Amino acid sequence: MESQTHERTLDQGTAYERKPSAYKTELTEVGRGTPMGELLRRYWHPVGLSSHATGTPREVRLLGEDLVLFRDGAGRPGLVWSRCCHRGTTLYYGKVEERGIRCCYHGWLYDVEGRCLDQPCEPENGAKTRDRVRQPWYPVEERYGLVFAYMGPPEKKPVLPRFDALEELGEGEFIDVDDTSIGSGGGAVAPCNWLQHFENVMDPYHVPILHGTFSGTQFVPAMNLMPEVDFELTPRGVKSSSTRKLDGGKVMHRVTEVVLPTLRIVPNPFVGSYGKVESIGWTIPIDDTHYRIYTAGRVKEKGVLLPRAPDAAFRKDRREMTPEERRATPNDWEAQTGQGPITFHSEEHLRTSDRGIAMLRRLLATQLEAIAKEQDPIGVHFDQASAYVRLEAGQRIAER
Ligand code: FES
Ligand SMILES: [Fe+2]
Question: What architecture is the 48-141 domain classified under in CATH?
Answer without folding.
Answer: 3-layer Sandwich (2.102)
